Fold this protein.
Amino acid sequence: MKDQIEIRKYYNSVYYKNVALKPHTLKHYTRLASKLNIQAGHHVLDVACGTGTWLLSVQECGGIPAGIDLSEKAIEICKSAIPEGEFYAGSAETLPFDKGKYDVITCLGALEHFINPGKALQEMKRTAKDDAVFLVLVPNKDFLTRRLGLFGGTGQSDVREEVRTLAEWQALLETAGLEVIKRWKDLHVLSWPWINAGKWYHIPLRAAQALALVAWPLAWQYQVYHLCRRRW
């Protein structure tokens, strides 16, 4: 297992090497903010916030954004794009945020990359208000394309990527003191930017994959949202 220094180096020098310095809002994040009913004055913390794309949508709804990411490069972009936000470069396992402050805690497509996801979840719970909601987006080990041997994971798997089944993710969340109250498919791939990513000759295959996800049951999905509240 690579240590945190190596992982940070990967994100700074590889993952975010060619990232846009001015992130823009995305339609699926605008819809997500509406689904979560983000309102003016809501304190929203995004753990592993990347360059802040999701938090831009939070801010547009009047939410008060905060974020942390292991990558210093990503956090500098966040600070530039959302100067009113509170941002730190650091570990998800040790959050530099006040206890009981946040109305909404999110961790989108990142928990599988943490060295100690259980500890990170405990930290998220510590910073949340008693009636806070938690939204976690995680990959599914039973993703049909993976089961057929046609998908081996993201580029981040070379650094750190521990994919679990939906039952295993739920068990992890419950062990951390969270109750899953709702789950739904991640269908952000139903967009031209996703379908058109990569080589032109991949477009038909990516379009077919995106359309398949609509029809496939939750158990076959690539990524699944887990909406949670405190169990204790």
User: Anything to note?
Assistant: The mean pLDDT is 94.
